Every structure is written in structure tokens, then in C-alpha cells.
Prior knowledge:
1 helix
Amino acid sequence: MEKPVDGMNLPSEIGQRIIDKPELPPQGVSTDSEVYTEVVAGEMHLKRGTIGKFEVFSDEAARIGGTDKYPSPMSYMAMGTGF
């Protein structure tokens, strides 16, 4: 079986993108992403996550010790499912 197409090195020009083709490659597409997460020291339940150039924060509701300034981790999971 052929190796999957490297999804991180694909054309971005309209008409050349995989999404513009009538069918996906039969061998599939592979992508790798490195995600880093950390608890912000001294901030109760505040967490920071980074992936590439993007940064997101997560918190918990005040009723369980957070400050409710950012969505909870489960809220991010639910949003991801919707996307």
C-alpha cells in the first residue's frame, strides 16, 4: 500500500487543493500536529494551550474553583465536534 499524502505540504492554490479534486487520494492524507498545554501557575484552574502560532486559554466555572474567564476544556471539545 502507498504511503499517505503529506497533508502538511499540499498546494494552497484554488484548483490544486485536495478539496478541489473530485476524490480524495486513495492512500489517504496524513497530518501531524504538536500541541502543548500547561497549567498557569497561581491561577487556579487556568490552562494555556498552543498549537503552531495559535494560543488558547481554558478555565473552569467559579462553582468548582475556576474564574470562568475562558471556556472549560469540555466546552472546547464540544466546539471541536461541531466544527
